Amino acid sequence: MEKVSPQTDILIYVVDDDPVVTSLVSSRLEANGYIVRTYAYAEECIAALGDMPDVIILDYYFLKEGEIPMNGMEAFDEITRQFPEIPVIMLSAQEKGEVVLEFARKGIADYVIKDTDLIDNLQMAVKEVLER
To answer: Is the domain defined by 11-131 classed in CATH 3.40.50.2300?
Structure first.
């Protein structure tokens, strides 16, 4: 399958340890003309922040065999410490109100639940964040 050449210069980081989610999300965003870079873990994303993405789509919970990786909240704190102007959209299967409220208090750009509407909801969130 040939990749669509970017129609914009908008760079989006997708950070998720689930390769299926990463593949689905990045494929759809690329089909919409965005430039997408994927990372399995938050630490990799943070190391690449110098490229100044326009949006970061960040998973909340990461699993890594034999290690305890940074979670999405810790990563969000580090991203905003270094580059407060980069909007972050959090992905999660978490539907707990207190978790969503904590993200809102911290200034997360949007929160998308990993469910059957993930791709459509994420596309809408990206569009809205970029229009702000």
So the answer is: yes
